[in-house]
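Board notes (copied after class):
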Amino acid sequence: MTISSLFRFMFKKAGMALALALLVAACSPSYNWREVDVADGHVRAAFPDRVTSDTRDLKLDTHTLKFTLASANVGEAVFAVGSAPLPPDIAADPAARRALGLALMRSLYVNMQAVPPLEWPPYGDVIEIHGKAMGKPGWLQARVWVTDTMLIEAVAAGTQESLPAERAREFLRSVVVKP
């Protein structure tokens, strides 16, 4: 399974939430923030609703990793932390870790059908991408980290209408990668 498939999975889950939101159209989405440890305890983040988790194989670059996605939806907006333990050969090789981190960042642009930058930001910096997801105009903010043992991403994604910029920033500010 590719990262694109996982990203579509996130939006498919958001689509179910959208159907429910349409049933209660008079209500605006509510954010019920709660701090949760995810990524096998390597990350603490404040999610805006109940967190669900799914683990799948992820083909990234030339490697297949067990990728766990902890996510919460508010309407069509998705707030997620994805993580994968690094195989020992990658964990021991700084160049391999960097290549895997760049492949994860590149996949975010591919998922949004957007042109990647010529220069990649440092790990942990906010990435903002505007493009399309599931055939609809959308946008996301993300942060990516590669530690000595884990590959980690935090993503807030949705449409301009479903994801207020302040909510995306609030989520990403809350994400703390533990040493």
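Comment from the instructor: The mean pLDDT is 88. The helical segments are 3-23, 88-91, 94-111, 165-174.
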